[in-house]
Structures are given as structure tokens and as C-alpha cells.
Amino acid sequence: MSKNVSNHLESLETGQKFTQDSDQKPQYMESSEAIANSDLARRVVRKIDMMVIPFICITYLVTYVDKAMLGYSAVFGLKDSLDLQGSEYSWLGSMFYFGYLAFEYPTTIAMQKIPVSKWLSINLFLWGGITMALAGCKGFDSFLGLRFVLGALESCSTPAYLLITATWYTVDEQPIRIGWWSTFLGVANSFGGLLAFGVGHIKGALEPWQYQFLVIGALSSTWAIFMFFTLAERPETASWLNEEEKNVAVQRLGSRHHGANHREIKKYQIIEAAFDPKTWLFFLCGIATQVVNGAASNFGSLIISGFGYSNLVTTLFQIPYGMVILVSNVSAMYIQRWLPGQKRCLVAILYVCPALAGAAGIHTISRDHKVALLVCYWLTSTYTASFAMIMSLITANTGGSTKRSTVNAVFFISYCVGNIIGPFSFKENEAPRYTSGIIAMLVAYCVEIFLLLAFAIYAAAMNKKKVESVESVAVDLQGISGPLQDMPVLSDQTDGEDPFFRYSY
User: Fold this and answer.
1) How many domains does the chain have?
2) 112 to 108, 156, 158, 262, 404: CA distances (angstroms)
């Protein structure tokens, strides 16, 4: 193979760019790997961690507490105030995700056209207002309608977190950062339980559940205003980076970094996403994980109260549940980082197993053993670490801006489907044991384990095929010579187009 071709293939793998000086001679820029290992780059990453991740973490906390507030309200008189009958409470839980489902793809397209940070802030501000309006509902119909609107507004949240993470961080850095903000699911459960406990003591003209919606709604809107004016969209617009730091923040990602800010919608990438088996493995994983989430967020408090605890004590017992989520997510993200090749699927499976055991315990242990049942309920929260791993698998294994947006949209459609199914698996006439719901959780855990194994096998096979393809290209290019600038490095390639893309599993 000629030296020029060898250098070109090497530049593709390391993400090098080149420029030309005044004499039109190729002049290499420093590789993204070298930049990433510099002291300046490490300082820039620390700045990004301090100025970007906290926004995602707090927003994640606020939006989850908003959703979980329905479950807390259920033990503080919501059902009686709205005179809910039969499956109407399950409909309130599921209707949120009908709104989410209806607006998921439109909001994903909007985020390719509108700055993500601004779109997220506006939606969160409106979300807070609608949450406060829930306190004024007098019946099932009005509450149901507002729950649909809430789902529509929140449809941008988690996709926005993933896009922001992909914009600022390299593929190797993303799992840790996703792990950081996903731990706030645990903080949100603990904070929500503590908030519900505190608000539950308010004695006033309104019902305790009404005060809960008013307080969390006001917090959401206030945070949205602050975020709108302070969260930077991308490195080039960050006021807290100087010009040198902005350049490093961009260059360290590499020319082929698939978190780049591409606004053009490419139809061929949508088609590639639709026919990519990984898309549908992610889709099924989303359903499996969110059947459990839909159950826990809407019926968790009712499950605990069914063990024989009072309303206020029930809210306090959500705090350890949140702490288990926090410990699980933090430990999972560092374990996958330390393992050779990261082994994200293996780590995800390891954290599904305690949740599976916990659900089995709830299903089989006698109601006389309240503490054992409570511990089993807390164990069911470890599955959240697997959800964080799955989200990191999506960002790490999907190249191309339009393809990534499409895969995210498909995944969050499954997110909605799972959360719609989850509440309906809990039948009112089975309270407080909710046998069908617990069995649905057991099945979902088993399906998730199978899907993670299938993804790992498929990704390994695709990597082997790509290695063989690159070796074939290298043989075909032997003897080719010519100026390097005639063979430019392409940007915004999909993982299927890029022969040097390697899948993480």
C-alpha cells in the first residue's frame, strides 16, 4: 500500500484533519486523541462537567418528581377527590405517555432545527404551569386531558439530555456522564418522597395532593427560566470558555464525532435506521425496562402501603428506594468503565438480576413479613442502572445526526409503550397484592436480559465484519497515490457508512 493511502487510513481512524498552508502543502492538525490527553483539554472537560451536567441532573430530577407526584398523590386522597373508579387511575398514569408518544417524533425533529437547550427550557416552563393547573382539577376528565399535555411537553426531555451529552462529550466519555445524570432518578425518588412527606403535613384550604402539584410545578417553571438564559448550546457559544478552550472543546471530539451539530435532515439515514436491527433491539429493550418504570412510578407508593404502612410512612420509604437507584447507577457506570472493553451489556444484566429477585420476593413472600417485602421492593429499583446502560449504548452505537435522532425517537416510542402497558398490568381488583402487575415485572426483567445478550452477540458479529471490510479496502487501495487532500475525511457518517466505526457492547 502506498504511503499516502496508509496515512489516509490512519487519519480516518484517529480522527485527524489537515489544512493547507499558503503553499498549498498538506499540514496536519493535532489529532483529537493528542488534544484529549493534554492538560488544557482536561481542564476544559472539568469546566464542561461543572457547567453542563448539573443542568441535566437538576432538570432530570424536577421532571421525574413531576411524573412521580401522581403516585404520591394517590396515597394522599387524589382518588377520593377525583372520585376515580375502576381503571381510571391507571388511565391517568398511562395518558401521560400517550401525549409523550404523540409528540415524540415532532419534538425530535424540532430539536434538529431549534437549539436544544432553548427548546427544553420552554417545554419545562410550560410543563411547570400545567403541573400547577392539575391542582385545580375537580374530576377525571380534566385531569386526564392535562396529563396528556404534560406528556407532550416532556417528550423532549430525555432525548434532549442524550443530545446535549453527545454534543459535549466523546463516545468514551458519554457512559459516565449519562450515568451521572441518570443517578438523579434515585435522587428524585428520595427528594420526591421527602417533599411529599413535608407537604403532607400542610394544613390548609386545599388537599395535601393539591399542594404537592403546586409546589413542584412552581419549582419546574422557576428552574426553566434560569436554564433558558444560562445553559450553553454547544462549545462555540459557551461564554464560560475562552477562545482557546472553545477550540479545544471542539477539536478533542474529532472530525468524525457523531455528536456534531448537523441541522440537515437526511432521508437515507432515516431509512438506514429503519432497517438496522440495532434500532429494534433498542426498541424492545425500551418496552421491557419501561413496563417496570410505568408500574413503579405510578403504583410504587400503593405497593408499599399495601404492605401495611401508613400514608406518611409510605412516602418516607421511597427515600431508601431512591438511594438504591443512586448507588446502583453510580456503581454500574464505574464498573463498566473499569472492565476491559467496558462490557456494558454484561453490567446491565448484572443489575437486572437483583431486581428480578426482588419482584419474585414480592410475589412469593407472605404479607406477614413486612420488612422482607419492603427490602424486596427496594431491590426492584436496581434495574434503573440497566436503563442508563441502554441509553449509553444508543449514543455510542449510532452514527449520523439524522440516524441518531431517528433511533432516539424510535427508542422513546418504546419508552412510551412500556409506560402505557405498565400501569394497566396493575389491576384495581387485585390490590394490595397486584399479582398481575408483579408478574408483568418479572417477565419484563427476563426479556430485558435476553435482549441485552442478543445485542452483545450482534454487535460482536458486526465488529468482526467491519474488521474484514477494512482489510479488504486496504488491499484494494494498494498502489493508489495522490495528494492526501483529494481523499477528505467525511463528517456526519452513520455507523453503517463508516468502516472504522466499532460498536460498544
Assistant:
1) 1
2) 7, 12, 15, 8, 11
